[in-house]
Design brief:
The complex is a heterodimer. In chain A, strand 1 and strand 2 form a beta hairpin. A two-stranded antiparallel sheet of chain A has the order 1-2. Helix content of chain A is 69%, strand content 1%. Chain A is globular and about 65 Å long. Chain A contains 16 helices and 2 strands. Chain B is α+β, with helices and mostly antiparallel strands. The longest helix of chain B is centred in the N-terminal third of the chain and has 29 residues. Classes of the chains: A mainly alpha, B alpha+beta. At the A-B interface, helix 8, helix 12 and helix 16 of A face helix 5, helix 6, helix 8 and helix 15 of B.
C-alpha cells in the first residue's frame, strides 16, 4: 500500500535507465534507444487515449441526444472505436488525380506530429514529465499552432474548392484565436512568475490559480476555454469542417487512414488543450490544497497525483464535448467578430488586471 | 445547349463557382445549386432542378380518379395526407359530392398532425443545418409518437394514401382519440424545451436575425406562400381564406410575421405548431358519429370541365388542377407545388450573404425536393 501511494514514475524511469545501461555501453546508442522507447510508448499512449476519447465523445453525445450510443461491439460498446479504426486502416487511401500528391500525403502527418509534439512539457503526474522546458508555455503556444499549416496544406493540395474554403477559414480562425489563448496563458505566467509548466504546477501548492486568482483568472480561464475550442476547430467553431456548408471542409477529399490521422490529431489536440488548461488553471497534478489546513492537505495527498491530473483534464474535455452537442455553429464573420471585438479586448484588459493584482499581491 | 452550360461558369475577376449539390448534406435531397462566390460572399445562386422528376402529373393521366392519388404521397412526402386531401377534394368538387362530417373531422385532425410532424422534422433539420445536432433527436422523439398514430390508423407512416374521394379509406382506430390526446400533452410540454435549446440561443439568433430578407412585395411577386410568405407579412393561409374540410368550424390564428428574415420564418413555424395543437384539441373530442366515406360509384367519372382546389400544406399553398374530358381518368393534371415557388425566391434572398447564410435560408424556407420536381 505504501509503495502504491508513493509510487513515482521517476523511479520506474531510473530503473529502466539502469537496465538499459547494463545492456548498452555506447552512451549515444543508449540515448537513442531511450528516446525511441519513449517515443513509441508516447504514441501508443496517445492512440489509446484517442480511442477512449472517441468512445467518450460518442457516449456523451448519446447521453445528450437521448440515445444509447455504441453498445454492441465489446462490453458497453467499448470496442466499437477499435472496429472503426480497423475499418479505416483497411480502407483504400485514395489520392485524387488532380491533387498535389506530396503535400496531400504530408498534411495529415504534419497535423499529427504537430499535436503530438505539444505533449512534451505537460506533467502527467508528480515527477512524470517528458521534458520540463524552461519556456514551456511559449513552447505549447508555438507548437500548437503548427496544426494550421497541416490544415492549409490539406486544403490547398486537395484541389477542391470546398477544401480550399475550409482551409482559408481555419487559417483566419486559428491565427485570430491564437492571440486570446496566448493572452490568457500570459495571465498565469504573470502570477506564477515562470514559463516552465513544472514550476507553474508547483506554484499552486497552496491553492489552484483559479481559486487564488479571483475573478481575473476565472475570466482568463473562460476565455482560454472558448478560444482554445476555436483553435482546435471543434464545434461550435468548426468552421474548417462545417459539414453542412462545406461538406467536410479541408478533409473532404481524404479517406481511410489519412482521414483517421486528422481525427487522431483532433482528439490529441482536445486532450492537449484540456491538459494545458488543467495544468495552468486547475493545478495540474497538484492535489486540492488549502493554504494553512495541513490535515486536510495531507488527506488530499493520498489521492495519486495522476488521478488528479486526469480527472481535471477529463472534466474540461467533458465540458468542451458538451459545447459541441449543444450550440449551433457560428458564421465565419461572426467568429472573427467574437474574437477581435470581444475576446481580445477583454483579455487585454484582463492581463493588465492580473498584472496589477500580481504586483500588489492581492491574490492569496 | 452545351455552350450555354459552359457560359454559366464564366466568372468575373475574383469570383469562383461552386456546385452545392446534388449530393450535399444541407440541400435535403437532390437539389443542385450553382453558387457564384467572392470569397465567402454569395454573389449569385442558380438552382438546377429535375434530378428527382418522376413525371407524376403525366403518369396520373393514365390512372383512374381513385388511383392517381397515391402518387401525390410521393410529392411532398412530409405532407402526404394533405396532398392526398387536395386531390380528393378536387375530385369531390368535380362530382359535387358532399363529404360526411365525420370524414371532414378526421381529415382535418390528420392534416394537422401531419403539419405538426412536418414542422417538427423541419425544426430538427434547421438545427442540423446550423450545426446543432441535438435538436434533431429531440424533434424525432415527439415525431415518432405521431408516426405511430398514423401507422395505427392509416397503416403507413410516411406515404399514407388515406384520403379517398368521398372521405377517408377506413374509420379511425379505437385508440386514435386517446393516443392523439396523449401526444398533444407530450408535445405541449416540450415546446419550452425546444425554445431553450434553439430559440433563445445567442448563436442561433445571430445566425438567423436579419439573414435572408424577403420583402412583402417580393414574396407576392415570386408567388411565395406558406410560412415563408407569412413571415414577410403576406396573409395567405388557405385554411383561413378559403376554408375546406372542417377548418370553418375551428378557431385558430393565422400567424403573421414582420421582417421576413430567417428568424421570422422560424418563429412562424414554432407558433404554427402551437396552433395545430390548438386545432386538434378542438376537434378530437367532437368527432361526429356517422359514415366515414360517402357513397361513390365504382368507376368515378368527372364531368367535362376544369376543377381547381387549393390547400395549405406545411410548406405553403398546394393547388391541384384537373382538366376532365368526361373519361375515367384525368385528361390533364397539374400540381402547383409550394416548394417550387418558394425556391424561386432563394437566389434573391441569398444574394450578398455568406455561405452559412445560404444554408440557413434553405433550411428556413423548408424545401422538400420531390415536391419541387414531382
Amino acid at each position: 500500500m505504501k509503495i502504491l501511494l508513493t509510487y513515482s514514475f521517476s523511479s520506474l524511469a531510473t530503473y529502466i535507465h539502469h537496465l538499459l545501461a547494463e545492456l548498452i555501453t555506447n552512451s549515444l546508442l543508449l540515448q537513442v534507444t531511450e528516446m525511441v522507447i519513449l517515443g513509441v510508448s508516447l504514441i501508443a499512449f496517445l492512440v489509446v487515449l484517442c480511442f477512449f476519447l472517441g468512445y467518450m465523445e460518442r457516449k456523451v453525445a448519446a447521453f445528450m441526444e437521448i440515445r444509447l450510443g455504441p453498445n454492441r461491439v465489446g462490453p458497453k460498446g467499448s470496442m466499437q472505436i477499435v472496429a472503426d479504426t480497423l475499418k479505416l486502416l483497411l480502407k483504400e487511401g485514395l489520392t485524387p488525380d488532380s491533387a498535389d500528391k506530396f503535400l496531400f500525403n504530408l498534411a495529415p502527418v504534419i497535423m499529427v506530429i504537430g499535436s503530438m509534439m505539444v505533449i512534451a512539457p505537460i506533467a502527467f503526474a508528480k515527477d512524470f514529465q517528458l521534458y520540463d522546458i524552461n519556456i514551456g508555455v511559449l513552447y505549447v503556444s508555438a507548437v500548437s499552432s503548427l496544426g494550421v499549416i497541416g490544415i492549409l496544406m490539406a486544403g490547398w493540395s486537395s484541389n477542391n474548392k470546398y477544401s480550399l474554403l475550409g482551409a482559408m477559414r481555419s487559417g483566419a480562425q486559428i491565427v485570430s484565436y491564437e492571440l486570446s489563448v496566448g493572452l490568457s496563458l500570459i495571465s498565469i505566467v504573470v502570477l506564477s512568475g515562470s514559463l516552465s509548466l513544472g514550476d507553474i504546477v508547483r506554484s499552486q501548492e497552496n491553492g489552484w490559480w483559479i481559486i487564488k486568482g479571483h475573478i481575473p483568472v476565472i475570466i482568463s480561464f473562460v476565455i482560454f476555454i472558448i478560444a482554445s475550442t476555436a483553435e482546435i476547430n471543434r464545434a461550435p467553431f468548426d468552421m474548417a469542417e462545417a459539414e453542412q456548408e462545406l461538406t467536410g471542409g479541408f478533409h473532404t477529399e481524404y479517406a481511410g487512414m489519412k482521414f483517421a490521422m486528422f481525427l487522431l490529431s483532433e482528439y490529441i489536440n482536445l486532450f492537449v488543450v484540456s491538459a494545458v488548461a488543467a495544468t495552468l488553471f486547475l493545478g495540474g497534478w497538484m492535489p486540492f490544497h488549502i493554504g494553512g489546513l495541513d490535515g486536510f492537505n495531507h488527506i488530499m495527498d493520498f489521492i495519486p497525483s495522476s488521478v488528479w491530473f486526469f480527472s481535471k483534464t477529463f472534466l474540461i474535455i467533458f465540458i468542451i464535448m458538451q459545447f459541441r452537442w449543444t450550440f449551433p455553429r457560428l458564421r465565419v464573420d461572426q467568429l472573427l467578430t467574437l474574437e477581435w471585438k470581444y475576446l481580445l479586448p477583454i483579455s487585454m484588459v484582463n492581463v493588465i488586471l492580473v498584472t496589477v493584482m500580481a504586483i500588489m499581491g492581492w491574490h492569496f | 445547349m452545351r455552350g450555354l452550360i459552359e457560359d454559366d461558369y464564366v466568372t468575373e475577376e475574383g469570383e469562383f463557382v461552386i456546385n452545392i449539390g446534388p449530393q450535399h448534406p444541407s440541400t435535403h435531397g437532390v437539389l443542385h445549386l450553382k453558387v457564384w462566390l467572392d470569397g465567402e460572399t454569395v454573389k449569385k445562386v442558380q438552382p438546377h432542378l429535375g434530378f428527382i422528376h418522376r413525371s407524376i402529373e403525366k403518369m396520373s393521366e393514365s390512372l383512374s380518379y381513385r388511383n392517381f392519388i397515391f402518387a401525390t404521397s410521393r410529392m411532398d412526402y412530409l405532407a402526404a395526407h394533405i396532398n392526398n386531401e387536395a386531390c380528393a377534394l378536387t375530385v369531390e368538387k368535380g362530382l359535387q359530392l358532399e363529404v360526411p362530417d365525420r370524414a371532414k373531422y378526421i381529415r382535418t385532425i390528420l392534416a394537422e398532425l401531419t403539419r405538426l410532424q412536418s414542422h417538427l422534422l423541419w425544426w430538427g433539420c434547421t438545427g442540423l443545418d446550423l450545426g446543432a445536432v441535438t435538436p434533431f433527436f429531440y424533434a424525432f422523439r415527439e415525431r415518432e409518437f405521431i408516426m405511430e398514430i398514423m401507422e395505427e390508423t392509416c397503416g403507413a407512416r410516411l406515404t399514407q394514401n388515406f384520403m379517398v374521394p368521398g372521405g377517408v379509406m377506413y374509420d379511425i382506430h379505437p385508440n386514435f382519440q386517446k393516443r392523439t390526446k396523449e401526444v398533444l400533452t407530450q408535445i405541449k410540454s416540450k415546446f419550452q424545451e425546444y425554445d431553450n435549446i434553439m430559440t433563445g440561443n445567442v448563436i442561433f439568433e445571430n445566425r438567423t436575425k436579419g439573414v435572408g430578407l424577403l420583402s412583402k412585395e417580393d414574396a407576392i411577386s415570386y408567388g411565395v406562400t406558406g410560412p415563408t410568405a407569412r413571415a414577410s407579412g403576406v396573409s395567405c393561409d388557405i385554411r383561413k381564406l378559403i376554408p375546406y374540410s372542417a377548418y370553418d368550424q375551428v378557431q385558430f390564428d393565422e400567424i403573421l410575421g414582420t421582417g421576413g428574415d430567417c428568424y421570422a420564418r422560424y418563429m412562424i413555424r414554432m407558433h404554427e405548431m402551437k396552433q395545430s395543437v390548438f386545432i386538434i384539441e378542438q376537434l378530437i373530442d367532437n368527432i361526429p358519429e356517422g359514415e366515414f366515406q360517402a357513397k361513390t360509384k365504382n368507376v368515378i367519372k368527372l364531368p367535362k370541365g376544369e376543377f381547381y382546389q387549393r390547400v395549405e400544406t406545411p410548406r405553403g399553398e398546394l393547388g391541384v388542377f384537373i382538366v376532365s374530358d368526361g373519361a375515367a381518368s384525368p385528361y390533364r393534371i397539374k400540381y402547383r407545388s409550394p416548394g417550387f415557388s418558394n425556391l424561386s425566391a432563394l437566389p434573391l434572398m441569398a444574394k450578398g450573404g455568406k455561405i452559412g447564410d445560404l444554408v440557413a435560408i434553405m433550411s428556413t424556407i423548408d424545401l422538400v425536393i420531390p415536391d419541387i420536381d414531382r
